Predict the 3D structure of the following.
Amino acid sequence: MRPNRLLRFTQLFIVLALALQCHVALGFQSEQLPAGSRLPRLILPAPDSVQTQKYLGLPTMEPFAMSRINARMLIVEFMSVMCPHCQANAPVMNRLYKVIQDNPTLAGDIKIIAIAIGSSKSQVDAFRKKFKVPFPMFPDEGYAVVGDLESLDTPTTVLTTITGKVLTSHLGEIRDFDAFLKEIRQIHKKTVGERG
C-alpha cells in the first residue's frame, strides 16, 4: 500500500471505530428511555474518593445500588470517553452541575453522575482531568453496570427518581441548555414540590 492510501485507510478506520463507540442521534426525547419507563437496578462501583462518597451521601466506600444515593432525583449521563459528542457535552454537564449546586433547593434534591460505558478507570480519570468534571464518573469497561443498556446511544442524559423511574431523557448533545434546565426545574417542582 502506498503511504497516502495507508494514511486514508487508517483515518477511515479511526472514524468508523469512533462511530461504533458513540451511537448518537440528536433528538430531544430518547426513544430508548421514555418518561415513565424504568432503569434497571444499577449497581455502581465503590466511590473513588471520600468527596464522591460525601456528595452522594453514601455510608460506606463499597459498591452500591443507585437507590442508595441520598437524593430525591438523579441525573445520569450515560456516555463514553471516546465519543466526540460526549466530549462536546462535558462542558454542558459541568455547567448543569454548577447551576444545581448553586441552588440550595436543587442541590439538596438532585445529584449528577456519569456512567462511562465501555470505558476503563484510567480512561475515565483522563477524561475527568481533561474536561474538569466535578461530579462522580463511574467506569463500566465490562458493561457490568449498564447490563441490558449497553447498546444505549451515547450521550443519553436521564433525569430519574432515586428508584429508577425515568422522568425525562435527552439523547445526544444538550444544545439548548436553558430549555433542558427549565424542564428539570419544572419536573422537580411537580415531583418534589420545590418552593421559590
In short: The first strand starts at residue 43 and ends at 44.
